[in-house]
Amino acid sequence: MDATAPHARTLHPVFCTIVPPHLLDKIAQSGNTARADIAQRTLEHDSLQRTRRRITTVRGITPAALGSVPAPDQPERTIYDAQHRTRLPGTKVRGEGSEPHKDATVNRAYAGLGATFELFLKAFGRRSIDDAGLALDATVHYGEQYNNAFWDGRQMVFGDGDGDLFLDFTVSVDIIGHELAHGVTQYTANLEYYKQAGALNESMSDVFGSLIKQYTLDQTADQADWLIGAGLLGPNVTGVALRSMKAPGTAYDDDELGKDPQPATMDDYVNTSRDNGGVHINSGIPNHAFYLLATDLGGKAWERAGQIWYDTLTGGELRTNATFKDFARLSVAAAVTRFGDGGAEHQALLKAWSSVGVPTE
User: Fold this and answer.
1) What one-character-per-residue DSSP string does 75-114 give?
2) Known catalytic residue: 7?
């Protein structure tokens, strides 16, 4: 059997951060020594974590499954406090069903895990990120002025930011959803974290992160801001978010962060060896395709556009090294299967992929 065939996959958890390396690289070159030092420490930490993740993957260490235990319809959340250290998980400070904590960061993390669980359950019938009721763990107050948040293959981890360029990483529910969605991808298509497959991996997390925010706010597609990380950037930054699905390349244009490099179409696709082949950059292309589809269809984006993306991700046909073209082709098949050939969903999807320059045949 082909090693990349769906039934021959080995689970490969990856280390995924919300702030991409290219952005931190730019800050690390700042003339402001304090900002540069914080960015450099964050980069060094993330590099070490990626190495550790590769080692545990080689050893075959993967999150435990629940076996034959029936999957629950309620989340099992645990929030830990790292107390500004980097040893995980830290001290338990809130468990499932317990009273709100005096620490707002703890409560935001708890609520974000719950919102993610609810969206996947109510919209797609999925019980936690592994569809088997996997417990959702998160650690807050990680490290000193740590400018990132990440999914490490087992749990969520949030830094507090430096209070200058980045604020507390629990402030945006779509960031929480984005990172947990990496877990959904890990347990389904298991997309490689490299080049177009890696950009699809990142895009899946942006899509579902945005849907979680829209679901929480009860927004229609035309009411949503389609921003990833709105509210995260500090008061000294010229920008509105980390990424824009509506207008990739416009989220920020700042002296310290640089200019948002995301392309919206294949005409501007970025060939680079950095950031695993530009996974955080070229994800703007499938992101924009989803935005175009969702806004064309209107209504609640998770009901039709989101369902097509979820069906494609979980359908078993998406290879681990899939390209944009592969995903586009399979998304069309998924739309036809669920909504019929030639209907509004089918036509809007063909138009969306055509608009970003990705063929569907």
Assistant:
1) --EEEEE-TT---SS-EEEEETTPPPPS-HHHHHHHHHHH
2) no
